[in-house]
């Protein structure tokens, strides 16, 4: 084992499970789906990540779980909310950022940070409009791959206005407009516009300060990122791999905690549970 | 709280909390009349003096609204909707009547809805004013007299000034006792948890005042015997809002490694601090307490000369409470569609923050269905102030 | 012989009914898809073909439903609320309260003894209580929409859903499945959630017996039973509840030509 | 009340003069400084109009300003500004729109926000509210506003009237209610005297009150002309013609306006000119403030032959004679009596009909007087005051009166985000078919 210590962060989102292992550097980062049959299999993503990093579970000094499904990860030593983790992770990558917009599968959030610490945050209502779910639904009904949405929208001649605020109805509207001959690109741009509007009015509740960054799955979508930039009246930064900021933050927070414990003369205690299936969701 | 002495009183409180209204049902069987009421503005002294059992209506946070929406718009605050739903479903079948004080639009504008669908033998809408100047005190006394008149007619008995004076004493004593129990939360860690305290507060609003006092006395004695474990690292939280009458939110706070040590809720801090002065005309003291001493956003507090004076008048007590209970962070939990509290948020938030106490503002439903999200936000807040 | 046509272009499904002398001669149903205009033609052709007819044999066409405006060959459009009334009058003349569960909207319609609408009410702005909910769940459970009905009747422990959002109910269903909940119990849970929304609408407008359920959602016996139980009344369901509005449209078409 | 983007065609020419009134009221608040007058942020239907008019205080009507923003479909930026400081979207949008506007102005050091509709509204020197029974924002909005306008003094009056209770006789309580209202009005006068540094001219107040009474009477007489079949004026217009009564009470211009409207309506009746041709259905707008951004919907109704000869909304007055006001020499006491009697004068009727309520009695009276076939309610999500209890009103109306066709539309007054024109028209279409069936059935 040597002197190197390894720390893992597991971010169990509503759609994706992300694992990051760090030492002094990022050892490995892995993303797997949290789809129906994968729900319980957070351990699988962890196993894959370990094997990629050539490590055994026992070699990890500390595991922090975060995300929507953080509650019941038996092999984690600690749970920390995705808000704190995103802030930490993002700060380590883009230290100038003061406002973070996180667009995940079920939530949109705004986070204000100062010196890497959260000073304020907001979260959306329990309605799917304005979340990444909306993008998935639309991608599905337009027959465009999720990863391609951003690119497609860049060819839009205008953003088709979407009047419904409900994801279900909006999907419908999009399909009808498509049939009426509205180009796919414009529709996708319209959807981005609609999400950006929602997110903007949410995040505005924080005293927005630059730089602004977008994380979460939504940040993978260049079209949405642009629409957000236009709304916020300032270009927004995107980390190289926006999906993993939460897991990265979790790993870093674990590391921080352990290192402090060691300085204080404790040796970090690992949870007794081995790597096993997670029972998820409340 | 693990490792702490248990208490028979707390068990009783737990029972009245989980079987809400159980005592009222018993007393009704013994022939007593039960009058339900909403809001901190109902003058319980008068109900006690009338010899009825006053029971404050509550909602049931883990029950979905299934019946009430048919009669009441969803633009009403979710707490009122939930309580009404419970009433329609027969959860308060022990009630012989109800008094609905004018607190806010959500209550005022649903008076007809409540009265027409509950069809109770006794019904009274108590027209509490919003402002607190001298003419308003006189007016408040008038409407209290009207209220007493209708009660007397319904019960067929006289409610004497002497009985009211005695009820005032009893309720003041009850308030002192409850504050005594609150005092036990000042230590670090507190001797009684926020979850336990919530059960006591809820139990207390469902039983006659003398029983409540006895209960609190017993609990206080038991809790005093506890020796707190050394666990001084947790953050101390205060919760502010209208009627939060369930343990779901205290649990969310305390399960994430913080203590809920104080509150400014309409079933807690808001009502147990102000007492009724024992005035020659007992109604004078009652009018003054409900209009001037209760600090709730539905009475217009603050005719100060400057905005700052107004702020002190409205929120000064919060800073005191924060200092006394050594609060590290405040959670402002406001229901959707609540105008009185909603309009207060920016001013209140900045006032508390100006004293160096961080504030989490949550606008939410009255329902456990959104609890997971509320929890995440509370946890993140605790991480933020850690 | 005088044939008339009723077309109901719903947001989810399009329905066509051919009538002659007030009797249903044939009908067809197909998903509306994105292009209402083409679907409207296709579904009416499908119904006509069964009778070896063509559009030219039709004396009068009434279009209804969400996409009625796109039916360029219709002589007239009437709202689907009125068509539902006319349709149910024909099927169950005793019905006074009609619950229509379509894909976007749930509606309750009160009709008089002539099948004319007395009043109506519908859900607003949120897909929470609509038939779309069923489709979403069917997709998660990887079953056909037509399988819901039978499966849900075998439920023993209905799952309680904490969200009213059709989109998030999907993820909630998924997590329940991962916890081992049975598909039948999930469906029953969805039925409970939908029924309570629908019953609220019924109570608001007032229940006058007898009561029937129409629209595609009525094909779901589990849902119909749940609603019936909540209302403590027997609810009637036609053999082909989904075509009620199209039938009503066709009947209104015959009325027009007999004037 | 306002001219909206698409320009609603108004049926009466007099109504076309309304934008001038609204602009006039706004610009008065801007010119007040030069004229050395004080501006008061005030509320409509708050009983304080005459005091302000008699003291030359210029009212700045928040509701009017927000309504104009909504009609111009220009409210979103103000709503968002307020939301950014944690004012919930579920709060009264008149309030949040106006507060958002003031927030922006303060941030800009007092400079008028760019593009403020019709030149915007002047900064108030005082804020007058009323803790009356109408709504919470009537005293919370002033308080919230002071958070941004810290130097502006706030005064809240309290004017109550006896609550409806079928088992008690409200007449027994009237006296102390009137006494209370009078005292509260006196406090308002004191406050205004303090801020303006001028004394109340009581004779002038008496004259203004007399003028208001006359205006009330004339208003009701004029609106009663709409009983004619076909009706010469629709609610779509009334949402404009209410402006002088609601915002300019106690001024000669307001009175003169109704003189003009009165003669125009009489001419129309003489010429048999109706709003809709042919007029097929007569409806009552039974509750709710309109969606200011969608006043065109009234025309949609008209295009289907449906007209609204009467509305509950903004008919904030009654024939003085009917209120049977006790004599008094104190103009404030007169206002108080008028207030208490106005709000309670359907109580007696409601007490006579078992299970009824005053609100429903009022609707029934109008349905009968104006020969209506159906009722339309609008339920705006951000204002509980007028829009909660509508389900109950509709239910009671059906139970104690008749099972007439009823349409409850859901929407908002200012917030356009929940509005969908196609859906709304669909709903109206279906309602029209319902009316058709109802009328057909009645004929038989
Ligand atoms: N490659 C991609 N391109 C565009 N969008 C993506 C991509 N991958 C994921 N997304 C979006 O990100 C969302 C998931 O984001 P994530 O931050 O993982 O959420 P959660 O933590 O809730 O699982 C999806 O709903 C989808 O909209
Ligand atoms: N066999 C079935 N079992 C259960 N539900 C069904 C079935 N067929 C259709 N549905 C439901 O009916 C809805 C469509 O109903 P329909 O009346 O055709 O609506 P619309 O006219 O709005 O398209 C679908 O959303 C689906 O939920
Ligand atoms: S929470 Fe607000 S709206 Fe609800 S009862 Fe309390 S004061 Fe009224
Ligand atoms: S409006 Fe649509 S997306 Fe929002 S909660 Fe309702 S169903 Fe879900
Ligand atoms: S009556 Fe309604 S719209 Fe007017 S101020 Fe009050 S809450 Fe707002």
List the helices and strands and how they pair.
The complex is a heterotetramer of chains A (282), B (386), C (259) and D (444).
Chain A: E1 6-12, E2 16-22, E3 26-33, H1 42-53, E4 60-66, E5 78-79, H2 82-93, E6 99-103, E7 108-114, E8 117-123, H3 132-142, H4 149-153, H5 167-179, H6 184-203, E9 212-215, H7 222-232, E10 236-237, H8 245-263
Parallel strand pairs in A: 1-4, 4-5, 6-9, 9-10
Antiparallel strand pairs in A: 1-2, 2-3, 6-7, 7-8
Helix pairs in contact in A: 2-8, 3-5, 3-6, 6-7
Chain B: H1 8-18, H2 22-29, E1 34-37, H3 44-49, E2 53-56, H4 78-88, E3 97-101, H5 105-108, H6 111-118, E4 122-126, H7 134-155, H8 161-183, H9 194-204, H10 209-224, E5 235-241, H11 248-254, E6 258-264, H12 269-272, H13 282-293, H14 307-324, E7 329-335, H15 339-342, H16 345-354, E8 359-364, H17 371-385
Helix pairs in contact in B: 1-9, 1-10, 7-13, 8-10, 11-17, 14-16
Chain C: E1 3-9, E2 13-20, E3 23-31, H1 36-50, E4 58-64, E5 76-77, H2 80-91, E6 97-101, E7 106-111, E8 117-122, H3 132-140, H4 148-152, H5 166-178, H6 183-205, E9 211-214, H7 221-231, E10 235-237, H8 244-258
Bound molecules: adenosine-5'-diphosphate (ADP) (2 copies) and iron/sulfur cluster (SF4) (3 copies).
Can you walk me through this structure?
The complex is a heterotetramer of chains A (282), B (386), C (259) and D (444). The longest helix of chain A has 20 residues, at 184-203. Chain A has two domains: 6-85 and 244-264, 2-Layer Sandwich (Nucleotidyltransferase, domain 5); 96-237, ATPase, nucleotide binding domain (Nucleotidyltransferase, domain 5), CATH 3.30.420. Chain A has eight helices and ten strands. In chain A, strand 6 and strand 7 form a beta hairpin. Chain A is an alpha/beta fold. The two termini of chain A are 37 Å apart. Chain B is α/β, with parallel strands linked by helices. Chain B has a domain at 23-162: Rossmann fold (3-Layer(aba) Sandwich), CATH 3.40.50. Chain B has a four-stranded parallel sheet with strand order 2-1-3-4. Chain B has a four-stranded parallel sheet with strand order 6-5-7-8, sandwiched between helices. Chain C is an alpha/beta fold. Chain C has eight helices and ten strands. Chain C has helices at residues 36-50, 80-91, 132-140, 148-152, 166-178, 183-205, 221-231, 244-258, and strands spanning 3-9, 13-20, 23-31, 58-64, 76-77, 97-101, 106-111, 117-122, 211-214, 235-237. In chain C, helix 7 (221-231) links the parallel strand 9 and strand 10 (235-237). Chain D has one domain. In chain D, 51% of the residues lie in helices and 10% in strands. Chain D has helices at residues 18-31, 49-54, 62-71, 76-84, 93-107, 137-146, 171-196, 202-224, 235-241, 243-247, 252-270, 296-303, 320-323, 331-344, 347-352, 358-369, 384-387, 390-400, 421-443, and strands at 39-42, 58-61, 126-130, 154-157, 281-287, 306-311, 374-380, 406-411. The longest helix of chain D is centred in the middle third of the chain and has 26 residues, at 171-196. Chains in contact: A-B, A-C, A-D, B-C, B-D, C-D. Chains B and D meet through helix 5, helix 6, strand 4, helix 7 and helix 14 of B and helix 6, strand 4, helix 7, helix 17 and helix 18 of D. The structure holds adenosine-5'-diphosphate (2 copies) and iron/sulfur cluster (3 copies). Residues 10-13, 65, 102-104, 131-132, 134-135, 145-146, 148-149, 215-217, 219-220, 242 of chain C line the site of one adenosine-5'-diphosphate (ADP).
